[in-house]
Amino acid sequence: MSLVSLICSCFHTHPHPNTISQYEDMEVKALNKRASGQAFEVILKSPTDLSPDRPQSLALPQKKKDVSLSELQKRQEAAEERRKSQEAEVLKQLAGKREHEKLVLHKAQEGNDSFSRKTEEKLNHKMEAIKENRNAHLNALKQRLRQKELHAAEVRKNKEQQIDLSG
To answer: Strands, DSSP E only, in the chain?
Structure first.
């Protein structure tokens, strides 16, 4: 119920034209129909509008009984125990979170170490393969150079023989 409706209902005690029913201490009126169903507004009447011969249903505040010093001390000790218990629970939760963080960090570190180890092994293997390929390529070049030198020596030898035979 809106605050304006509540205040207006306190000043205007006559029933609203859309009132469906009226009870001793409240009035129910229909609002425009909504797509989702019906809507009602309940207006509570102020206690002054109620008949004076009817007993008031509102509860009167009870008087506080006097509390002794020992009762206050007991309450204070109980509050202190609750505070300590809550503090211990918070510390326990924090310790659990720290332990979980340590486990997560340890697992992440192990993962990083494993990744680094594997990467290093792959790099070493790749560098070894490159070194072997380089050596094989150099050996092939040396072999071709030897072949060319042998062929050149053979060509020179044949040329000298032809010169000796012809001349």
So the answer is: 19-22, 26-30, 40-44
CA distances from 113 to 89, 93, 107, 123, 127 (A): 36, 30, 10, 15, 21
Q: What is the DSSP letter of 50?
A: S
b/e code 8-27 from CB counts within 10 Å (16+ = b): ebeeeeeebeeeeeeeeeeb
Check residue 96 and give its pLDDT.
96
Strand partners, 27: 22, 43
Rounded Cα distance, 119 and 152, in Å: 49
Q: How many CA atoms lie within 13 A of 148 on its CB side?
A: 6
| Entry pTM | 0.39
pLDDT in tens, 104-162: 999 999 999 999 999 999 999 999 999 999 999 999 999 999 999 999 999 999 999 99
